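can u do me a favor
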């Protein structure tokens, strides 16, 4: 037997061309063994984990899993938020060849039951014993599960006969050379085409869809993303997203592929951890940038009106200079040929403004360094994905002096589709498709459109899912005859081949925090109220959900007379009264409860009543289906004001 202090990375096998996540993981440990892989805090104590320690934890947990029956091809439900143990668990399953079926701790029991049955899971891993308690009724009756594991706690076998706690499993940290040989032999049997994970996303039918991703799907991202952000082992990340989210998960794979350090933080500690750990990279969703923006603005406001005006002027000067610099150096999106004369005039104007603004820009840049210190002072790249970053936020972060990498992807693409990395400086775009990816814009008839024209985005590449698990209907709808995946998004290409998102053709709503929401489930629930004739859920790239409601006036009038007091009599637009809107919102949220299968972020933050019905041929199809993107475009100003 041995222990990790005597472990030598040179005993690891050499893989010339790693083609699975297992062989890539082993190669990283061999190359970067003494580097710090993860930093996390538990029980108030900071822990630093080297790549060697990570390898040992993975080996020991994989051995425990295998001894309790887990084998290649088994589907394993992993119910946990982000923590170091999540990645150890994932890599242990990968080494065995088991398929990770992950979900967050806020998953309702109904959804958990559906996923376990649909994915044919035979093992369950939960983060805490509290999760066992919240789902105990279902778990006691579920005959499909052979064994349940808990990441925290100990001595839990008394609760369930087939339950094991990690603390009990890993108490003995000794292992032999034979254990290592078995670990390598098993991992080396994996194929690039083997299924690695099934990630369930919201579906238009109200039931989640299981996105299948193979080793080759994920490895495409692991190979191409480091080049886009020019990643080196000197980089270190700060992480707050749940590890089961494909954006975060791939970022973590990319991180250890180059020997970097990843610090696990939380929403609560994120601002202080930025200053404490001074990361060079942060990959997160727009909601986090919104929160940081608000905190900085609040801090400035506390310093008084004069400080606020000065700060606003510095941001304006920096943004104006950078905007004109982009125009001068051809870093703005171009959808049609402007002509030499027009281009020269615009560049001359931009150059003149740059010269005038430069002294003020230099002064502002020095002062804004204080804001950059709030981000740690060493942040070379801020990667935003999981939703569209609002233009005002993008310009604000840029004005402060932080380079933004705006990325576009989805679970079905592992997730990278396009990214405005260090090789692309075209502002207001998502950059070109990532390497070895074909992207096209098509009309409703399926014709490929030229640059500048809006249409549906379709993508093909090694990162694209082979399909949805046990869901042939969705597979038929989601792929073209020539194998392109229909993203459901609308966009257009610049003349230089960069992508710009213009809307969503499909119905899934993605909040700025990255959560995917199926609007039809909530809209159907709202239609139970007699005073709601029609409803459209909104909130794409916003902090929370809102609803545009078409009222049945007489039913609403009767409801208001019973529920709301103090309204002015005879008011024709009584539905726009603040008291009415708040009372209706509260009552609507009473049915959007976890026991009904809804999640905490599926509550309505704001609502408004429309004074016009949806019309056939305009907002409605002939079969009475809502044209979501048409309605959102028509009421764009109203929606923005509603969810500011």
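np, heres the sequence
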């Amino acid at each position: 037997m041995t222990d990790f202090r005597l472990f030598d990375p040179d005993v690891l096998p050499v893989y010339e061309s790693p083609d699975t996540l297992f062989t890539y993981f082993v190669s990283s440990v061999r190359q970067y063994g003494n580097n710090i892989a993860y930093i996390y805090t538990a029980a108030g104590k900071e822990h630093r984990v080297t790549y060697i320690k990570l390898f040992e934890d993975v080996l020991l947990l994989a051995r425990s899993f295998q001894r309790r029956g887990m084998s290649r091809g088994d589907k394993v439900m992993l119910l946990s938020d982000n923590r170091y143990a999540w990645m150890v668990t994932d890599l242990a399953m990968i080494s065995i060849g088991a398929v990770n079926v992950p979900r967050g701790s806020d998953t309702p029991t109904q959804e958990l039951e559906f996923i376990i049955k649909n994915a044919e899971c035979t093992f369950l891993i939960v983060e805490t014993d509290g999760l066992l308690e919240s789902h105990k009724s279902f778990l006691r009756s579920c005959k499909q599960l052979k064994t349940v594991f808990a990441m925290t706690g100990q001595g839990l076998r008394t609760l369930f006969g087939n339950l094991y706690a990690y603390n009990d499993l890993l108490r003995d940290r000794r292992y032999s050379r034979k254990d290592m040989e078995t670990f390598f032999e098993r991992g080396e049997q994996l194929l690039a085409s083997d299924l690695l994970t099934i990630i369930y996303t919201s579906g238009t039918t109200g039931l989640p869809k299981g996105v299948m991703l193979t080793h080759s799907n994920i490895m495409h991202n692991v190979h191409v993303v480091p080049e886009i952000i020019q990643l080196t082992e000197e980089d270190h990340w700060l992480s707050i997203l749940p590890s089961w989210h494909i954006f975060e998960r791939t970022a973590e794979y990319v991180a250890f592929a180059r020997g970097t350090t990843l610090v696990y933080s939380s929403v609560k500690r994120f601002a202080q951890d930025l200053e404490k750990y001074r990361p060079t990279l942060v990959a997160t969703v727009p909601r986090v940038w919104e929160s940081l923006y608000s905190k900085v603005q609040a801090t400035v406001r506390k310093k008084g009106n004069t400080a606020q005006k000065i700060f606003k002027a510095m941001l304006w000067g920096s943004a104006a200079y950078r905007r004109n610099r982009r125009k001068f150096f051809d870093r703005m999106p171009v959808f049609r040929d402007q002509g030499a004369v027009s281009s020269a005039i615009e560049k001359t104007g931009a150059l003149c403004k740059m010269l005038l603004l430069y002294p003020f820009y230099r002064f502002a840049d020095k002062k804004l360094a204080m804001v950059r210190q709030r981000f740690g002072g060493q942040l070379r790249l801020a990667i935003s994905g999981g939703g569209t970053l609002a233009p005002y936020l993008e310009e604000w972060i840029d004005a402060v002096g932080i380079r933004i990498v705006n990325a576009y992807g989805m679970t079905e693409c592992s997730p990278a589709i396009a990214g405005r990395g260090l090789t692309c400086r075209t502002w207001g775009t998502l950059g070109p498709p990532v390497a070895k990816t074909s992207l096209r814009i098509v009309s409703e008839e399926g014709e490929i459109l030229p640059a500048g024209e809006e249409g549906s985005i379709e993508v093909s590449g090694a990162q694209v899912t082979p399909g949805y698990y046990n869901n042939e209907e969705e597979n038929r709808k989601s792929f073209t005859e020539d194998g392109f995946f229909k993203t459901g998004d609308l966009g257009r290409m610049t003349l230089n081949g960069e992508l710009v998102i213009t809307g969503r053709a499909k119905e899934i709503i993605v909040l700025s925090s990255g959560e995917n929401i199926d609007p039809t489930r909530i809209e159907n629930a709202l239609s139970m109220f007699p005073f709601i004739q029609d409803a459209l859920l909104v909130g794409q790239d916003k902090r929370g959900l809102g609803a545009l409601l078409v009222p049945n006036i007489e039913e609403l009038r009767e409801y208001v007379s019973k529920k709301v007091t103090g309204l002015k009599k005879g008011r024709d637009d009584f539905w726009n009264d603040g008291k009415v809107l708040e009372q209706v919102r509260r009552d609507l949220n009473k049915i959007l409860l976890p026991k009904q299968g809804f999640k905490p972020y599926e509550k309505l933050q704001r609502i408004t009543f429309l004074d016009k019905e949806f019309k056939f041929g305009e907002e409605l199809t002939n079969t009475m289906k809502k044209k979501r993107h048409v309605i959102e475009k028509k009421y764009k100003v109203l929606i923005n004001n509603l969810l500011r």
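The two ends are 61 Å apart (CA to CA). hope that helps!!
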